[in-house]
Design goal:
The structure holds two protein chains of two kinds.
Chain A: H1 7-18, H2 37-49, H3 53-66, H4 70-88, E1 95-97, H5 102-106, E2 123-125, E3 132-135, H6 137-140, E4 150-156, H7 170-186, E5 192-199, E6 207-214, E7 220-229, H8 248-251, H9 258-262, H10 271-281, H11 283-294, H12 298-313, H13 325-337, H14 347-360, H15 382-387, H16 408-427, H17 432-438, H18 443-446, E8 449-454, H19 457-466, H20 470-476, H21 481-497, E9 501-506, E10 513-515, E11 528-535, E12 544-549, H22 554-562, E13 566-570, E14 576-581, H23 588-592, H24 594-607, E15 614-616, E16 628-630, H25 642-660, E17 669-674, E18 698-700, E19 703-705, E20 718-725, H26 735-755, E21 760-763, E22 768-772, E23 775-782, H27 784-791, E24 792-794, E25 800-802, H28 806-831, H29 834-848, H30 857-869, H31 880-893, E26 901-902, H32 913-924, E27 933-934, H33 951-972, E28 994-998, E29 1015-1017, H34 1021-1026, H35 1039-1051, E30 1055-1059, E31 1066-1071, E32 1079-1080, E33 1089-1092, E34 1100-1103, H36 1105-1115, E35 1120-1124, H37 1126-1129
Helix pairs in contact in A: 11-13, 12-13, 12-14, 14-16, 20-21, 21-24, 27-28, 29-30, 29-31, 31-33
Chain B: E1 13-15, E2 18-24, E3 33-39, E4 54-58, H1 66-73, E5 79-85, E6 110-115, H2 118-125, E7 132-134, H3 145-154, H4 159-187, H5 212-229, H6 236-266
Parallel strand pairs in B: 2-7
Antiparallel strand pairs in B: 1-2, 2-3, 3-4, 4-6, 5-6
The chains are: A alpha+beta, B alpha+beta.
């Protein structure tokens, strides 16, 4: 008999589960007394229908938080009733000319619309609204916190309008005046607190009046007033998308405006203007239609709320050119209409389905539509809609495009985000909820490249002259030239960048509000506009754009687009193509800036925007990774160090080959792997080829030595390389003996390398140093046997147990974990050339905070790797700046206490790991370190976060990250060209108790300092490799770090020491308060304390601070310039 | 606050058996170190630190060398040996294990000074508290700072000596091991006094190594064997049990999640603005 869990059974099962407690199974541990049948079925439903039960609970909590409270609803309802009563009973006004400003001036109100040109015919006579109704998200109950605003719509009577009011902005101006008149009445009301104008959805034709008034319980509510014409006031076909309703003759103030009226058919269409009016005409109709579809379903309602939160977190919900809340409601209604969503679905299903269809849809080629009847002749066709340049979503009437203010680039962003989010949901990863709803995807974090274009006379006139047909668009949007310019810039850039860019999007300026007496908001008055580019890491760094074949017809277009930059080139396969070469250098730092060059070139060529008006943010932090090399004529170029890492890798390949070819070792070598950070491209300043030691240096048995009388030699790091030997029964079983054997092997290895391959070698007990191409590699022979020996413990019963000790832990890290990690991170760099610069920039930031060493370097590497392996809610970082911002955001917002960070290296996590690891984590939370970073080889996540960082330090680090993030984001979004990007890399010294200034001659890495401009001498790698150097350089000799280590070791009980190892010139000291308390007279408290005897009391010990400072001076003899209190000097 | 003098007659200061001395690193020093001296006493009699002739000196500065200590106490009597250690112990720490790095011990805090005669210790304990003594002079200079780092680097090991040392140690080690193996082989199959025969690596019937891992594996094997014989979801009750387990699991997870949510709510994690 075979049974499966199926639906029929589950019905029966519910019964059994329900009456279980009364039956014989009472004795079992079944504790479901409080779970009734309903709850159990809910659990089952959760399992089947939701992402996960945790997700469901989280979303329910979120909904509770963002939903509008019942009290607020009542307040709003009452307020709107009050307002509509007042409005309906307003007295009629006197007749004025539209251009008459006297009556407005007497009321201290300015018309909230840009009037350019000012002269227009027609009169204005205020009459109270026929009706006032509440509309929008309040009716469908899809409002979300914060900034709750209900839409109140006034119906302007037919009589208010005159014939031809549709023409030349007359409708819009009268509508604006209507709001002014309403405002002038409302301001006298006692309950009204606040009156402001704003553009509805940023649309400059559609001002709205934002009224804040006291609710019946005296709490403030906010309503926005809109005005729409009575139905039948205008014919809808009048506003056909391709018709002209703003006459160029009038707009450009030509001498003979009447001519336009004759051949109106041939004039350029004004789709934006038309749609703005149609929006009012069809408001009620579309509103009702959507309400009908959305009403009565909780799932749909909550789903829309979630979608709004989702959009809002991506800065896409509000402002000009945004994806409005109404639009998303319409789309959900559309999906219900086409039966993709049904009303029984829960919020998760609604949310997911909508995103899924958004990610697949195309609102230009295959637009959604509410229109169901036979198309009429007067209605625009889909093609005509499409030609208007925006996205298309045909409304109920068939005339109006619901998405007229949604530009194509915004839609592609929404689509892109939807795709990312659907992927997130599918991958079942941790923190899905956070990625979808809680993480704010701010503009600087989202986009890899960001640039600002200053708005001034030159950037406005340049494009207006250069771009064909733009004048008509400016006319269409009511004289706000920036709007049209931005659209053009984005379009040209998308064409120019092609495959290099995934997204090109202007920053959406969110709705500005202004007081009734102020001038209306003018888009051209903004200091700048900002454009973000999300790049494609595969293509963005190509230095060459290959065009069509020289003889092809398309080549003419290509030449026309690129101008003199385009040249004919012969390619390796023998073909001749048009091509554009952007840079001669193959430096990664230059490659990253190819997009910048393209932007500069294209904007000047096609838009007339000069590069001096463009502030391009990418590359602004590169100086922090740059070094000035000397001599200038070497072929070593130091951009941001990527090439240097590669040079090391290249030299390392040679060394590996040499080591593998060794014959004198009795055992074969299993693997040769580097473990220095440079091997995973994560060394802030990769080593430079060493300069040949001069002959006058002190030399003993082939090794150069430092000397007191001469300047200190440059710092040469020894790059650790683990040579894993094969296992053998011959390996001794005692650590000391293993060490002895290893010494002999090292000696053998070193001698052979020296004699046979004539490499410059220095042999020590536990390593062999080899110089190759000016880099020093430290070869360390190891074997897993040593690890086993260190771990082995024999119990009394004779059983052999393995137990980790501190030593075995350290050794395991060095010979097993680090090679593995290095390998995995190396492969991330292979896929993403941005990884290296990102991780190094992040490390630089950490070091600059003078907290280096308080958290393991590898933990940092992994956090950055996380940005690349699990980039949600973003895509993989495409520039070091974006990477740094996201790193700071991750560090400061990740809930380290409640979750482990799961870095899916090489995608080696299995599905069940995503449930078991957090579960294990929860269970053992108390014993785990304050920060857990799990990787597939390390599922507990403690390898790199024990014992550092400590909890207080992590807290401090989070604060530092949060502050730096805020500062850097605001710097990036600020267009000023004098911004000092090194600011966040200069920590204040004032919070230290004392500061040790180091002598410059002792600080041999000073050229790496944040503010240092000095040069560094390097050897020539070319000559170095040909002529074998005979003198082994001084390695690993950095007295500043040695001094720091000594300080920490000696005075660690009394103070903390902080230092930036990359050229820092000061060491900060913070005293430990508890060390300064009076201590008992005991041996363990003798250090740096003096005895005190108070009367008959037992003798005690007091700290001797002076003595500590004295000893710091002694230990730092020849290194310390001065020890000062930063508080006094600042 | 100046420490009060306990014993006025002799100008030395003794607190709880420790004589206190004031010492300066050099003439340029601004402050004194307070050294705490005592005769070394330990239940373990060691030849290195003979009873009565060994002086413990606490709180010596970290850069202190043997020369410095010698300079300080040479007036008390002839000094035979000086041990510098990072922490006080009952027996001398083994001076750097044979093959581990034998770099100078850093961060010393305690010195053990062995005098030729017992009088040396007594003299040292009687040294006057008031006099500020200097740790260094021309013959015993301070080796610290840059100079110390440079001289430390200069101590490059001699490869030849290293090789010889290692070879000697290994030869000794293998000899020792061989002997052990030989002994074990001889004992193979020979019952001990209770009549038990020890299983060793060398017998015919070796048996697997007794490690934790192996025992766990064996247990697992047994479990799997047992499991195979069981019939799954055969009886209705079993089937019901499986389902019940499933629901229980769901419930447990639900409870767990609810708890998590509660924590998150407390941390205000649900405000997307």
């Amino acid at each position: 008999m075979k049974r499966r869990l199926n639906d029929e059974d589950s019905v029966k099962e519910k019964e059994t589960a329900g009456d279980l407690p009364t039956k014989s199974r009472k004795k079992s541990t079944f504790t479901d007394r409080e779970f009734n049948m309903e709850e159990i079925s809910k659990l089952k439903e959760t399992e089947a229908l939701y992402h996960s039960s945790l997700f469901r609970l989280q979303v329910s909590e979120l909904l509770r938080e963002i939903s509008v409270k019942q009290k607020m609803k009542q307040r709003l309802e009452e307020a709107s009733r009050f307002l509509s009563d007042t409005l309906k009973n307003l007295p009629s006004g006197k007749e004025h000319k539209i251009t008459d400003r006297k009556w407005l001036k007497s009321k201290h109100i300015k018309n909230p619309i840009l009037e350019k040109p000012f002269q227009v015919k027609g009169t204005f006579l205020f009459s109270p609204p026929l009706d006032v109704f509440i509309s929008g998200s309040f009716v469908t109950d899809t409002m979300i916190e914060p900034d709750i605003q209900a839409d109140l719509v006034m119906i302007m009577p037919k009589t208010f309008f005159q014939p031809k009011d549709y023409l030349n902005q007359r409708y819009s101006r009268k509508r604006a005046l209507y709001l002014c008149a309403v405002a002038s009445h409302l301001e006298n009301l006692e309950r009204v607190q606040h009156l402001q104008f704003s553009y509805f959805m940023g649309n400059p034709y559609k001002p709205m009046l934002v009224v804040k008034l006291n609710g019946h319980d005296l709490k403030q509510v906010s309503l926005s007033l809109h005005a729409v014409p009575e139905s039948g006031a205008f014919k809808e076909s009048r506003f056909h998308v391709s018709k002209n309703n703003v006459r160029p003759g009038w707009f450009f103030e030509k001498s003979d405006p009447t001519k336009d009226d004759v051949d109106a058919e041939s004039l350029p269409g004004t789709p934006y203007y038309n749609s703005s009016i149609l929006h009012d005409l069809c408001w009620a109709k579309n509103g009702k239609f959507v309400e009908k579809f959305l009403g009565g379903s909780e799932g749909v309602r909550d789903g829309i709320k979630l979608l709004k939160v989702w959009l809002n977190q991506r800065e896409l919900l509000k402002g000009f050119g945004a994806f409005s809340g109404f639009l998303i409601s319409c789309y959900v209604a559309h999906l219900i209409m086409v039966k993709k969503i049904n009303k029984l679905m829960n919020f998760y299903q609604v949310f997911r389905t909508t995103l899924l269809y958004l990610s697949k849809s195309d609102w230009v080629l295959d637009p959604p539509s509410f229109y169901e009847d036979e198309p009429q002749r007067t209605q625009p066709t889909t093609d005509e809609f499409r030609d208007s340049g925006s996205c298309v979503f045909i409304d109920r009437s068939g005339f109006y495009n619901l998405a007229f203010s949604l530009p194509v680039h915004t839609f592609s962003r929404v689509k892109h985000e939807a795709k990312l989010s659907v992927d997130t949901l599918e991958q079942q990863q941790q923190n899905t909820f956070d990625a979808l709803f809680m993480t704010s995807v701010s503009f600087p974090r989202k986009f890899d490249h960001i640039f600002h274009v200053e708005v001034n006379a030159s950037t406005l006139n340049g494009p207006l002259e250069k771009i064909g047909g733009i004048q008509n668009q400016v006319m269409d949007v009511g004289g706000h030239s920036t709007i049209s310019i931005i659209y053009h810039v984005v379009k040209v850039l998308s064409d120019a960048l092609g495959k290099r860019a995934v997204l090109v999007q202007p920053r959406i300026t969110s709705g500005k509000q202004w007081a009734k007496g102020d001038d209306p908001f003018e888009f051209d008055s903004e200091p700048c506009f900002t454009i973000g580019i999300s790049i494609d890491n595969m293509n963005a760094f190509n230095i060459l754009d290959k065009g069509p074949a020289a003889e092809a017809i398309e080549s003419r277009d290509f030449r026309a687009f690129w101008g003199e930059k385009s040249e004919m080139r012969r390619f390796k396969d023998g073909t001749i193509h048009e091509a554009v070469l952007w840079t001669e250098s193959s430096c990664q730092s230059d490659r990253r800036l190819v997009c910048k060059r393209i932007v500069h070139y294209v904007l000047e060529r096609h838009c007339g925007i000069l590069s001096k008006n463009i502030q391009y943010m990418e590359g602004k932090l590169d100086p922090l990774l740059h070094l000035n090399l000397l001599p200038k004529d070497t072929d070593v170029v130091y951009g941001t160090g990527e090439e240097q890492s590669l040079a090391v890798h290249h030299a390392f390949d040679h060394v590996t080959r040499a080591v593998r070819a060794l014959t004198s070792l009795p055992l074969s070598i299993n693997s040769v792997q580097g473990i220095h950070p440079v091997f995973r491209h994560a060394c802030v300043f990769p080593p430079l080829p060493v300069k040949q030691a001069t002959s006058d240096a002190e030399v003993v048995s082939g090794c150069a030595l430092p000397s007191e009388r001469k300047p200190l030699p440059p710092y040469v790091p020894a790059l650790k390389v683990i040579c894993m030997l094969e296992g053998s029964g011959k390996w001794p079983e005692e650590t000391e003996a293993i060490k002895g054997l290893k010494t002999l092997l090292h000696i053998k290895m070193g001698t052979e390398l020296k004699d046979k391959l004539s490499l410059c070698v220095s042999i020590d007990k536990d390593h062999v140093d080899v110089v190759k191409d000016g880099f020093v590699f430290r070869l360390i022979i190891s074997n897993t046997r040593e690890l086993a020996v260190l771990r082995t413990v024999k119990t009394e019963s004779g059983m052999v147990k393995f137990k980790d000790t501190e030593k075995s832990f350290a050794l395991e890290k060095e010979i097993i974990e680090l090679p593995r990690l290095t390998h995995l991170l190396h492969s991330i760099q292979q896929e993403n050339p941005v990884f290296s610069a990102t991780v190094r920039l992040c490390k630089r930031w950490l070091a600059a905070q003078m907290v280096w060493g308080l958290i393991a370097e590898e933990a940092l590497d992994l956090m950055v790797a996380f940005l690349f392996t699990s980039p949600h809610p973003y895509s993989v970082p495409g520039s070091p700046i974006a990477g740094l911002l996201r790193f700071l955001h991750l560090l400061s917002t990740f809930n380290w206490k409640a979750d482990p960070l799961m870095v899916n290296l090489n995608k080696d996590f299995k599905d069940e790991d995503f449930t078991t690891i957090p579960k294990e984590f929860q269970k053992n939370r108390a014993t785990l370190p304050c920060m857990c970073i799990c990787t597939p080889p390390d599922k507990q996540g403690t390898k790199w976060t024990k014992p550092q960082p400590t909890e207080p330090f992590l807290k401090r680090l989070i604060v530092l990250a949060r502050e730096s993030l805020a500062a850097l984001e605001s710097q990036i979004m600020n267009s000023s060209n004098v911004t000092d990007f090194k600011m966040i890399f200069r920590p204040p010294l004032s919070h230290f108790d004392l500061v040790i200034h180091l002598l410059k001659k002792a600080n041999i890495l000073h050229y790496q300092g944040v503010d240092e401009k000095s040069d560094v001498h390097v050897g020539d790698s070319k000559t170095g490799s040909n002529k074998s150097p005979d003198i082994f350089p001084v390695v690993e000799f950095c007295v500043a770090t040695k001094f720091l280590d000594d300080l920490k070791m000696t005075f660690g009980d009394f103070a903390w020491f902080f230092y930036d190892p990359f050229g820092g010139s000061v060491i900060g000291i913070v005293w430990k308060v508890q060390a300064f308390e009076r201590k008992e007279f005991k041996v363990s408290n003798f250090r740096y304390r003096k005895p005190v005897i108070d009367g008959d009391e037992r003798p005690n010990l007091d700290i001797l601070k002076e003595s500590i400072l004295d000893d710091i001076r002694v230990i730092g003899g020849g290194l310390v310039e001065s020890i000062v209190s930063p508080k006094a000097s600042h | 606050m100046a420490p009060e003098r306990k014993n006025e007659t002799r100008s030395n200061l003794v607190i709880q058996g420790y004589s206190v001395l004031q010492v300066k690193a050099s003439e340029r020093s601004r402050a004194c170190h307070y050294l705490y001296l005592k005769e070394h006493f330990s239940p373990h009699q060691t030849t290195e630190w003979p009873q009565g002739r060994t002086l413990e000196v606490h709180n010596i500065p970290p850069y202190c060398t043997q020369d410095n200590v010698r300079k300080l106490f040479k007036e008390c009597g002839e000094i035979m040996r000086i041990y510098l250690q990072p922490k006080p112990t009952a027996m001398p720490l083994k001076a750097s294990l044979i093959l581990s790095s034998d770099k100078q011990i850093k961060n010393v805090t305690v010195a053990y000074v062995v005098f030729r005669k017992a009088g040396g210790v007594k003299n040292a304990c009687k040294l006057a508290f008031d006099t500020e003594r200097l740790l260094s002079d021309k013959d015993a200079p301070l080796v610290s700072g840059l100079r110390a780092y440079i001289s430390e680097y200069k101590a490059i090991p001699d490869v030849k000596a290293m090789e010889e040392q290692a070879e000697a140690y290994l030869a000794e080690y293998y000899k020792r091991k061989d002997e052990e193996v030989k002994r074990e082989k001889e004992m193979e199959g020979v019952p001990d006094e209770d009549g038990f025969i020890k299983v060793t690596r060398y017998g015919k019937n070796k048996g697997s190594k007794r490690t934790e891992e192996n025992e766990r594996k064996a247990k697992e094997k047994m479990r799997m064997k047992k499991k195979k014989t069981e019939l799954k979801d055969f009886y209705t009750s079993q089937f019901r049990e499986t389902k019940r387990q499933h629901i229980l699991e769901l419930q447990a997870k639900f409870e767990e999640d609810k708890k998590k949510i509660k924590d998150m709510k407390a941390a205000r994690k649900f405000r997307p603005y």
